[in-house]
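// run 5 | inverse folding | seed 20
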């Protein structure tokens, strides 16, 4: 009788030990596997941002709390979002990104039958912050233009101020995007520096951030002269004519 009871208890202990072991293994292997799978489904810049959030915010928090994947509840996620808002003084927009990352990861776990449901589906996201832009006055713009006069970045500053181009769009601007004959400038290439997997890399894309970012803008007279003089007088020693600069070389501002 005692031997039989002892055998049953030993089997139960072994069963619980195995369950706890696999729960811990599932948590660890799941995190690594998903980061690896996700890498091949998104842009490098997207994966870099996701990896940063996972490794510096999400994983450390739940590791410290010793919360396993199988035990995760909506309350855990709600508490995490509130913690991030108070601890890091971040905006609710950033927390929404964390929520999207977590939900996608948990949805993957759900599809792989690693969890019974996705707890992120039951969590209300924080409301998005209303963006309020700020603008330079005419006086401030004139001061800025005077400060960069005859500087290699002068054209870049003018492009940002007049056309509202993103930094990645200015840095990615190629001479072939400027058509002197039609007097247009096309935005279709971007260059973004990214900290990725312990290294600083440059990501070049022959496409803008989204469909609306593909655009062709008029090359107004002042920019016509600026671009032409910039190519003639700077280190941009590329073959060009008054009608069209015909090269895929990027415009350099240094």
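// decoded
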């Amino acid at each position: 009788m005692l031997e039989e009871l002892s055998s049953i208890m030993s089997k139960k202990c072994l069963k619980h030990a195995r369950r706890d072991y696999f729960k811990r293994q599932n948590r660890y292997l799941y995190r690594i596997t998903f980061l690896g799978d996700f890498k091949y489904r998104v842009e490098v810049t997207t994966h870099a941002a996701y990896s940063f959030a996972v490794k510096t915010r999400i994983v450390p928090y739940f590791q410290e709390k010793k919360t396993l994947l199988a035990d995760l509840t909506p309350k855990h996620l709600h508490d995490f979002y509130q913690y991030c808002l108070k601890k890091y003084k971040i905006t609710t927009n950033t927390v929404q990104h964390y929520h999207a990352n977590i939900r996608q990861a948990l949805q993957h776990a759900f599809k792989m039958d690693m969890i019974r449901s996705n707890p992120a589906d039951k969590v209300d996201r924080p409301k998005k912050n209303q963006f309020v832009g700020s603008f330079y006055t005419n006086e401030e713009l004139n001061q800025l233009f005077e400060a960069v006069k005859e500087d290699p970045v002068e054209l870049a500053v003018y492009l940002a101020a007049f056309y509202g181009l993103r930094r990645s769009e200015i840095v990615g601007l190629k001479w072939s995007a400027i058509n002197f004959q039609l007097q247009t400038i096309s935005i279709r290439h971007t260059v973004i520096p990214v900290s990725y997997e312990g290294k600083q890399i440059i990501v070049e894309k022959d496409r803008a951030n989204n469909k609306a970012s593909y655009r062709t803008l008029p090359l107004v007279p002042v920019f016509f002269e600026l671009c032409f003089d910039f190519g003639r007088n700077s280190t941009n020693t590329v073959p060009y004519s008054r009608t069209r600069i015909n090269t895929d070389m990027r415009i350099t501002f240094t």
